[in-house]
Specification:
The protein has 372 residues and is α/β, with parallel strands linked by helices. Helices cover 39% and strands 14% of the residues.
Length: 372
């Protein structure tokens, strides 16, 4: 078996493929981050242990997110913080929405938690194509928020569907959970890439709603990551926000010492200061996602244009990931997402030229049938 296929999340660590399996900013690592890392390497910063408390970085994140420094916890990427939170809270019963990111279930399973699942519905038309309302969360979900739940994981925008939970429904979820004494873990790692079809102010409104939610609900733990937004997966950097500062401090105790390297802290500080990069990346993703989506429709492939910097695609081909890999293109095979099957792939939004290469390969496989 190809070693690459032993890792369920995607991401080409070999450098051999045009990688659409990892959903990162198509603009690449910001020049400001590269410069900060170069200065660090030239100086003496790498000769000392990193700040175990991420003091400067937490201060910068707190200012951006409008919370106290004590409400911020930095970690070695999103997965580290997911596992650390579960180890700290030791929930007896938890709820997950499927299909979604695998690490929630993995962390809960390792802790011996009783896991319940709520499946988002796939709706297809008579031709087998996804309907626009597929995988959307409805108000019926509130009935699943029973008082015996210790923890519920929600991912919005959801990976891999790209669906965001409507703000009004999210508000009711948070309120119901608070009344029940349930902690809500909201993975918002793709929240920096809201689709801008309704106008650029939608991103600002989404950002503001995230901040208000953290401030208003101490039972909320919000997860964000630098990986997707600034294309730095090799540095491993994410953070939690929780207005219950005692809970944040307790979760912090369950991490390994010096879990965030000096390089990651320096990169995070540089990235937060680079507002121009973030604005450019958001606009580029929104425009390219629309273009790729329209091109897929012309190919007869229907996929919902949701949030995030990726698209979930369903075709009649079950061997498409392998066929594309033979052409040097790596996509996310979604067959190991609970609630999906081998007909689904997830593709990142990359540069225009790279997206065209993917579209050409998809045309050849789905329409032309050419041998790679």
């Amino acid at each position: 078996m190809d070693r690459l296929e032993l890792f369920p999340h995607g991401g080409d660590y070999t450098g051999k493929y045009l990688d659409f399996s990892a959903s990162l900013s198509p603009l690449g690592v910001p020049a400001s981050v590269r410069s900060a890392l170069a200065a660090l390497a030239e100086g003496e910063g790498l000769a000392s242990y990193p700040d175990p408390y991420c003091t400067e970085l937490r201060r910068a994140i707190a200012a951006k997110e409008e919370v106290t420094e004590e409400a911020v916890l930095c970690g070695n990427g999103a997965a580290d913080l997911i596992h650390r939170t579960v180890r700290a809270l030791q929930p007896k019963t938890a709820l997950i929405l499927e299909p979604t990111f695998f690490e929630y279930e993995k962390a809960l399973s390792e802790s011996g938690c009783d896991i319940r699942k709520y499946y988002l519905k796939e709706n297809r038309n008579e031709f087998g194509n996804l309907c626009a309302d597929s995988f959307g969360l409805k108000e019926e979900f509130l009935d699943a928020l029973t008082p015996d739940l210790d923890l519920v994981f929600v991912c919005s925008p959801n990976n891999p569907t790209g669906r965001s939970i409507p703000e009004a429904l999210m508000e009711r979820i948070l309120k119901t959970a608070q009344e029940n004494g349930t902690i809500v873990f909201w993975d918002a790692c793709f929240a920096d890439f809201c689709d801008l079809e309704d106008g650029a102010d939608r991103q600002a409104k989404s950002d503001a709603f995230l901040r208000r939610s953290v401030q208003a609900y101490p039972n909320l733990i919000l997860l964000k990551s630098f990986t997707k937004t600034y294309a730095i997966p090799g540095l491993r950097l994410g953070y939690l926000l929780c207005s219950d500062e005692e809970k944040t401090a307790y979760i912090a105790k369950w991490g390994a010492p010096w879990s965030v390297s000096t390089a990651a802290q320096v990169a995070g500080l540089a990235a937060l200061k680079d507002e121009t990069y973030l604005q450019r990346a958001r606009l580029y993703v929104s425009e390219e996602k629309l273009r790729v989506w329209l091109a897929l429709l012309q190919l007869g492939v229907f996929c919902r244009r949701g949030d995030g910097n990726f698209l979930l695609i369903r075709t009649e081909r079950e061997d498409l990931p392998k066929r594309l890999k033979d052409r040097g293109i790596l996509v996310r095979d979604c067959s190991n997402f609970d609630g999906l099957d081998a007909h689904y792939i997830r593709v990142a939004i990359r540069t225009r030229n790279e997206n065209d290469q993917l579209l050409d390969a998809l045309w050849a496989e789905l329409e032309g049938g050419e041998t790679p």
